[in-house]
Write a structure and sequence with these properties.
Elements lengths: L7 E8 L6 H14 L3 E10 L6 H7 L8 E9 L5 H9 L3 H4 L3 H18 L4 E6 L14 H4 L7 E4 L6 H14 L4 E7 L6 H11 L3 E5 L9 H15 L7 H30 L19 E5 L2 E5 L12 E6 L2 H4 L8 H13 L11 H13 L8 E5 L2 H20 L5 H5 L2 E5 L8 H5 L15 E4 L3 E5 L2 E6 L10 E4 L3 H4 L9 H19 L5 E6 L3 E2 L5 E2 L2 H12 L14 E4 L14 H4 L5 E4 L11 E5 L1 H5 L20 H17 L3 H9 L16 H8 L4 E7 L2 E6 L10 H5 L23 E3 L1 E3 L2 E5 L6 H19 L1
Parallel strand pairs: 1-4, 1-5, 2-3, 2-4, 5-6, 6-7, 10-25, 12-13, 12-17, 17-20, 20-21
Antiparallel strand pairs: 8-9, 9-10, 11-22, 14-15, 15-16, 18-19, 21-22, 23-24, 24-27, 26-27
Helix pairs in contact: 1-10, 12-22, 13-22, 18-19
């Protein structure tokens, strides 16, 4: 991710298979680069077999005449002539599991050498990193090379197969690399007078904009070492000679052009963006110039690869740097960027279906997803149907339509025509349900609304949960009837706060019930809107400021509007209850559904974001049987006449199925088990809530002078800074944590970013609140590193 330099052109060489001439052709490229006066660095990350047959020795042997211009090296060497994963096991024996380098160690070693060569290289220089075997040959850990090397994101040269079956092998390897996002700058293969694979492959790759070159094959290997050396040396001189075509040299020239083109494109992107793009949630008047544009070259795992904004005059510095995606890309990332399982799921459905219309039809991706969500997922025990739509906001539009119809149908005889049109919703102050008009109308007037906004409803002020000076506290607003002013109620632990059932008979629960009841009675007395649905963001109100609502309040609110305690019922009562779980659903906060913590389930719920791992947009609105039956009749006009061209998009549904499968596996992972244990109750028993963030870190930063309160659940960490003005338009959180934007490492020379390079942190703020969010599979090493960075930034501003 940081291997792009202006002065050092780096290419990785993959083979379509073993024995396709990868080392022969790489050596030819090395020689051609050196003959053009370049310093050339050749790296063989892993080599197996006898030393005299090693690829780096071959390169050294046939470049000795180039006056020290070529620098070959191998990082990991094993004696057995087998696949690297087997060679490593055979060398390490019984201790193999503990001593074989991990993928992270392997990639960091390669990246470290590239950085070293970049400092050593003259301007300009070339580097070639040659892999072992084919695209999917295993690395030392057993991960296939296509996946293991992906964090480096090196531009690639693919060596095709010129033998029988080589057309298929070459295309398959090419597609495997494309599916993982690799930039393939050239495809090379030997000429063969009989199979003539190049004749077929050249137009195939031309059509796809990929350069292909065929190179004359090497002479047969001779038994006499001296004669073989002379023959092979002559071959290399021939294919790099200007007099007879300079076949390898023409490829080198093409790679240089591709390198320059990539650098030029990255440098042009800020200005082109400012000239054409209108960003969401950005005040363009505050954008001062190209330096304010973040250019994302690629993304992998939890990190972006972005262009550096340094004013340094160092011509040998990397042009890219890793940047931690601190908001999980607007709360969407589930298992990190560019996860191969999700990419393959998308390709699988795209290849089978593309997109097919859905009314009165079905296909397996949609059916499997609906059954998973209704029967075994967040809808288990209460939902009857799944309705597909595009994103969270449109999913909420569907939910509102469902609730309003159900309410109007039941109370239709008591509602006039105008009253039906003015039905409102009951919600909480600070709520946000999306940017479509109907979803906006379900919220109070605010920064997210527009001129057409027509707030339809009534919003209660919720009590919130936070950690202040190491103490769990519930802030109860003064608007509650029993509290003359805002008060803080200390809690014994976070586990106690979310043990809702055992808090239902407390004085605070009774105060909540009284406040809700009196508020609704007062609304009715003054002729307020007829409320037809309760709409909640359960547990956390995200865009409103990462407000962690006291779960007891939301439970009491649901019970109050239903006129009964929790429990299953075939019919909704009071008014339909909608849970907007677009943000918190599907384990973002450590539970699949907020209902498990609240002890009560909705009549309608909406899931999105985490649902598809951030790869494609998709939303699902779940509904109970009684809600579904409100639209059930013989009259077409009474159906739910709502839909989108891409309803139940097969690609999105298949990606969602794969995402949920990966989440199921994560729930059994050692990382989750350890995180849950760290948040155990004081007596050591399991807490109903937990976080991937370390409890000692959270308590420590809550004691800092600059911090007003902190809160965390699951992958979410929210930090509210001291600010007299507050509000969404405040810049206080951005200013307080601005040090995170600097590229640095907290653990010596190597960082937790892919390749070990120093990294910056991309984070989002909501006025005086900064929040950080991981994927569900972010490694503890990365999270501890972010915690160190946040601690350092906050500590420096608190002094």
């Amino acid at each position: 991710m940081t291997s792009l330099f202006r002065h050092l052109r780096v290419h990785q060489v993959f083979g379509a298979n073993t024995d396709v001439g990868k080392t022969i052709l790489t050596t030819a490229l090395v020689r051609a680069s050196a003959k053009r006066g370049k310093d050339v660095f050749y790296l063989k990350p892993v080599s197996t077999g006898a030393l005299e047959d090693a690829d780096d020795h071959h390169v050294k042997r046939y470049t000795n005449d180039l006056l020290g211009k070529v620098h070959p090296e191998c990082l990991f060497r094993y004696d057995e002539p087998v696949s690297p994963h087997l060679a490593a096991k055979m060398k390490e024996g019984e201790d193999a599991d503990n001593s074989i380098p991990t993928d992270e160690t392997f990639i960091t070693s390669i990246s470290d050498r590239i950085r070293y060569y970049a400092k050593k290289a003259s301007d300009p220089s070339h580097m070639y990193v040659e892999t072992a075997g084919g695209v999917h040959s295993p690395t030392l850990s057993g991960t296939t090379q296509a996946d293991a090397y992906r964090p480096l994101f090196l531009p690639t040269v693919l060596i095709g197969d010129s033998k029988l079956g080589g057309i298929s092998t070459t295309i398959s390897a090419y597609e495997a690399l494309l599916l993982r996002g690799y930039i393939i700058d050239a495809v090379l293969l030997f000429q063969d007078e009989y199979y003539r694979n190049g004749e077929y492959l050249k137009p195939y790759f031309e059509e796809r904009g990929t350069f292909l070159a065929t190179v004359r094959p090497p002479p047969p290997r001779l038994s006499n070492p001296t004669e073989n050396f002379i023959s092979t040396e002559g071959y290399y001189k021939t294919i790099t000679s200007a007099e007879v075509g300079d076949e390898a040299g023409l490829v080198v020239d093409h790679l240089d052009v591709r390198h320059k083109s990539r650098v030029d494109e990255l440098e042009s992107m800020p200005r082109r963006t400012l000239d054409t793009v209108w960003w969401p949630f950005v005040q363009h008047g505050q954008v001062k110039g190209e330096k304010d544009v973040t250019v994302i070259d690629s993304a992998y795992g939890d990190f972006f690869s972005v262009t550096k904004k340094s004013e340094s005059t160092d011509t040998k510095r990397a042009l890219l740097e890793p940047q931690f995606d601190g908001s999980a890309s607007w709360w969407t990332q589930t298992v990190g960027h560019a996860h191969p399982s999700l990419t393959l799921a998308a390709a699988r459905a795209s290849g089978r279906y593309g997109h097919v219309m859905f009314p009165q039809a079905t296909h397996l991706p949609a059916l499997n997803l609906a059954e998973r969500l209704v029967k075994d997922g967040p809808g288990k025990g209460w939902a009857s149907r799944a309705f597909f739509s595009d994103d969270g906001s449109t999913g909420m539009e569907v939910a509102l339509k469902m609730a309003l119809r159900a309410f109007a149908l039941r109370h239709g005889s008591n509602l006039g025509a105008n009253e039906k049109k003015s039905l409102g919703i009951l919600g909480l102050k600070g709520s946000y349900h999306g940017d479509t008009i109907g979803a906006m109308d379900a919220c109070e007037e605010g920064v997210y609304t527009c001129e057409w906004h027509n707030a339809k409803g009534y919003w209660l002020e919720p009590p919130t949960v936070g950690i202040k000076d190491g103490q769990i506290a519930i802030t109860v607003p003064g608007s509650l009837a029993s509290f003359p002013s805002s008060q803080t109620v200390n809690a014994e632990s976070l586990a106690w706060v979310y043990d809702v059932e055992n808090r239902l008979h407390t004085p605070l629960a009774r105060a909540y019930a009284l406040y809700i009841t009196r508020s609704l009675e007062a609304l009715a007395a003054r002729g307020g809107p007829k409320l037809a649905a309760l709409v909640l963001e359960p547990l956390i109100m995200g865009a409103g400021g990462m407000l962690f609502v006291d779960p007891l309040f939301q439970r009491v609110l649901v019970d109050t509007v239903r006129g009964r305690r929790s429990g299953s019922s075939a019919q909704w009562s009071g008014m339909p209850v909608i849970f907007d779980e677009v943000f918190v659903g599907l384990n973002r906060v450590g539970v699949e559904s907020a209902g498990t913590l609240l002890g009560v389930y909705p009549d309608i719920s909406v899931n999105a974001k985490v649902l598809t791992g951030g790869l494609v947009p998709l939303a699902v609105t779940l509904a109970s049987k009684s809600i579904f039956e409100a639209f059930l009749s013989e009259n077409k006009a009474e159906a739910l006449l709502h839909g989108h061209s891409y309803t139940a998009h097969a690609v999105g549904c298949e990606v969602a199925n794969e995402t949920l499968r990966l989440i199921d596996r994560l729930q059994l992972s050692d990382e989750w088990i350890a995180a849950k244990a760290s948040w155990a109750k004081p007596d050591g028993s399991e807490s109903p809530v937990w976080s991937l963030w370390d409890p000692e870190f959270v308590r420590a930063i809550s004691r800092l002078e600059q911090v007003k309160e902190v809160m965390t659940l699951g992958s979410v960490l929210a930090i509210k800074v001291q600010d007299n003005t507050g509000g969404y338009v405040s810049q206080s959180a951005q200013e307080t944590l601005k040090a995170l934007k600097a590229c640095s490492s907290t653990h010596g020379d190597l960082s937790a970013a892919p390749g070990g390079a120093p990294f910056s942190v991309h984070y989002r703020t909501l006025g005086d609140v900064a929040y950080f969010m991981t994927s569900l599979n972010t490694s503890p090493t990365v999270i501890r590193s972010i915690e160190d960075r946040v601690w350092t930034a906050l500590s420096s501003t608190s002094q």
